[in-house]
Amino acid sequence: MEQSTISNNNPSDVKPSKPKAKSSSWINAIVENEISVDTTSQKLIVSNVPKLSYDLYKGNNVMLLIDVSKSMKADNKFQLLKQSMFNLIASLRQIDTVSIMAFNTQSFVVVEPQTADNLAYFQQVLDTLQPKGQTFGVLGLEKAYNYIESKFLQNGNNQLIIATDGAFNGPTYSRERLQLIIQSKTSKGIKLSVLAFGIESENKELAKNLARYGNGNYLEVKNAIQANQILIDEIKEQSKR
After folding, report:
1. Hey, which bits of the chain come out as E strands?
2. pLDDT tens digit string along 218-232?
3. Residue 21 lies in a domain
4. In a domain, 13, yes or no
């Protein structure tokens, strides 16, 4: 397992990885995996988001697992999701890394791990995702866990955040399988939090259980005010020294 280690709390001693070139490779991945590119959607709002304190919070290895199924189109859910994630990324530091996976009928990596200060690139990616397809969440969750485990950060916060409306289905779906996957990875030090958007009552219990099995929190977003801050507060809680 490939591992990274934080050896110093002083940002001046940290050598961030070189940002990846802003190529069209991520667009090709989206098209090949049946995710549409939306060039007319509302742009993300770039606000003045304070950075996390180096003294108060450990380094973070964050995997954002985004539900891009067609059910996310309703009630502005997908725009709130993107704003939540963008604000979180804006709050992270040079010692923090972020990767993004998407899932609908398929699941795949959209952004490979890179430092969170490459903000314009993350904004471009999030701005152009558009939901379609079904919600094969089990496969997406399993792939995301394996990916974040391969990049495990020693002495840091290894955090998987799944953003969804909770409508899980698919050929391998079962609650028992979900529970086993999550508890296995939790025992290895990977936390799971669930960011919920418009989850119906029959799916809310499942989403809360996923977060409980994953040693994280269930976070429900109902409006833009919550979307702006909710993931920042979650990472602060999970990465507190």
Report:
1. 4-5, 36-37, 60-67, 97-103, 107-115, 129-130, 153-154, 157-164, 190-197, 218-221
2. 999 999 899 999 999
3. no
4. no
